[in-house]
Amino acid sequence: MYQAVMENKIVKSKKAKNSFIIGAALGIVGGFFLMVTGLILSAISYFYQISFRGLDMVLIVAAFIFLAIGSHFLDLMDEEKKAKRIVFCREHGLTDEECQEIKSAGEQSK
Q1: 50 contact partners, CB below 8 Å, separation of at least 6
Q2: Which of 48-52, 65-69, 89-93, 100-104 has the highest average model confidence (pLDDT)?
């Protein structure tokens, strides 16, 4: 069973983890797609004198919003990972210093 502590709430579901991954992927891929589409429409309107009535700029602005949402979900995934480590350490009676030592030893072995 999946368990993490986030903002003093215990989440016992794999749906929460999957929603973070899906949200991050949709935000980043969607933002990239909107940015490329907006830039292509902007280039077409510049070179061929075709008016898209601001659609190209709307897509570019929407791309930044999607990228911000994607980065927010990536931050949530990082907080979730930290919360799982804290819960693990508390369940096994480790102090904060011992937890940091385990974390730093794991990062050095990579």
Answers
A1: 44
A2: 65-69
Q: Tokens 């102090």 correspond to what residue?
A: 95
What domain count does the chain have?
A: 1
Six token digits for residue 44? 């077409």
User: What is the rounded distance in angstroms from the CA atom of residue 109 to the CA atom of residue 18?
Assistant: 28
Residue-number span of the structural domain to which 35 is assigned: 12-109
Which residue, among 46, 65, 48, has the nearest Cα to 56 in the 3D structure? Answer: 46
Residue 99 lies in a domain: yes
DSSP bridge pairs for 5: 10
CB 96 within 8 A of CB 89: yes
Give the span between the Cα atoms of 53 and 35, in whole angstroms: 17
- Separation of alpha carbons 99 and 23, rounded Å: 30
More confident position, 74 or 96: 74
Amino acid symbol at 76: L
pTM: 0.74
